UniProtKB/TrEMBL annotation:
<feature type="domain" description="ABC transporter">
    <location>
        <begin position="9"/>
        <end position="253"/>
    </location>
</feature>
<dbReference type="GO" id="GO:0015833">
    <property type="term" value="P:peptide transport"/>
</dbReference>
<dbReference type="GO" id="GO:0016887">
    <property type="term" value="F:ATP hydrolysis activity"/>
</dbReference>
<dbReference type="Pfam" id="PF08352">
    <property type="entry name" value="oligo_HPY"/>
</dbReference>
<dbReference type="InterPro" id="IPR003439">
    <property type="entry name" value="ABC_transporter-like_ATP-bd"/>
</dbReference>
<keyword id="KW-0378">Hydrolase</keyword>
<dbReference type="InterPro" id="IPR027417">
    <property type="entry name" value="P-loop_NTPase"/>
</dbReference>
<protein>
    <submittedName>
        <fullName>Glutathione import ATP-binding protein GsiA</fullName>
        <ecNumber>3.6.3.-</ecNumber>
    </submittedName>
</protein>
<keyword id="KW-0547">Nucleotide-binding</keyword>
<dbReference type="GO" id="GO:0055085">
    <property type="term" value="P:transmembrane transport"/>
</dbReference>
<dbReference type="InterPro" id="IPR013563">
    <property type="entry name" value="Oligopep_ABC_C"/>
</dbReference>
<keyword id="KW-0813">Transport</keyword>
<dbReference type="GO" id="GO:0005524">
    <property type="term" value="F:ATP binding"/>
</dbReference>
<dbReference type="InterPro" id="IPR003593">
    <property type="entry name" value="AAA+_ATPase"/>
</dbReference>
<comment type="similarity">
    <text>Belongs to the ABC transporter superfamily.</text>
</comment>
<dbReference type="InterPro" id="IPR050319">
    <property type="entry name" value="ABC_transp_ATP-bind"/>
</dbReference>
<dbReference type="Pfam" id="PF00005">
    <property type="entry name" value="ABC_tran"/>
</dbReference>
Amino acid sequence: MREKKEPVLKVRNLTKKFNLQDGKKLTAVNNVSFELYPGECLGIVGESGCGKSTIAKVLTQLESVTSGNITYNNRDITHLKGEEVRQNRRKIQMIFQDAAESFNPRMKIGHIVSEPLLNFKLMNKGEAESEAKKLLAMVGLTEDFMGRYPHQLSGGQKQRVAIARAISLEPEIVICDEATSALDVSIQEQVIKLLMDLQKKKGLSYVFIGHDLAVVRNISHRIIVMYLGRIVEVIDSNKLTTDAAHPYTKALLASVFSVNRKNSTEIGIIKGEPPSPSDIQPGCGFSSRCTKCIDKCLKEKPELKEIAKDHFAACHQIGDEQIKDVKV
Ligand SMILES: Nc1ncnc2c1ncn2[C@@H]1O[C@H](COP(=O)(O)OP(=O)(O)OP(=O)(O)O)[C@@H](O)[C@H]1O
Ligand code: SF4
Ligand SMILES: [Mg+2]
């Protein structure tokens, strides 16, 4: 379980806006703050387009920040440049859903896994090769995968290679963006177990991003629920089913944990669509879909407040008895 030491990563008031071709701005991430603790797995969940991948990209410097700041081990990494970005990526690695698409199809798996070690000049070719074998063994792949090409592997095997490559540089933080979403349920379980084992062995901290609340809950210690670029709730995952307070989280739970749910049902059962992030209206972003919406919700944005120890929610009606059996 998570130990509350100094956070390894601190995100403060992070906002990311994209310029659109029509001159408008799209607010993908809106004033988001959170911490990641050593050895913690922090889940981020929310519907498509709510800003999850943008957070991942900003944390790994694939996108710049519009405002706010990011601190890694008390060092401000918000505006790193050139070589500093490269060095920082050693410590904060990312695994994507389609990680294998970034593999060079003409490169053998052994080379794909050892390449980061060679690029950072941490080892010579022979040493990197034997390290690649060890890394493959760690993710449950035998030595004979060294000589295979990406197209000769299954989806689950490719994702294991992506994990081996990501941990090759001994990162402290691994950001998994839908890293298991494309896999069959049984393979997904194996890869998640592998990630959890590696976390224990190597003391990694994870940000685990997904749209499947059940999967994210299984691996995470704490869960951030996002809606329209903002955090609407932060809750310990073992309290999720009993203590979730925000109407959006409750609606997600109702859809995900319903008795009729098929495995891996995606979020999307909640009626209506989220509003456009390029036309942010005053008031609560969820008001157009929330049956508990009151006048105040249309005028004032609810702030994220601590409603119980380590439990945060952004809703004008939290605290009211009626919110307990909200149906959306
Ligand atoms: N480069 C970009 N330019 C303009 N808009 C962008 C860009 N990248 C992302 N967006 C927009 O920002 C919003 C957040 O996108 P993001 O990819 O972070 O969502 P997500 O939560 O990861 O969604 P999904 O679950 O579908 O992966 C979306 O409205 C998206 O269209
Ligand atoms: S602030 Fe209002 S509209 Fe938003 S979630 Fe709470 S009750 Fe619903
Ligand atoms: Mg995404």
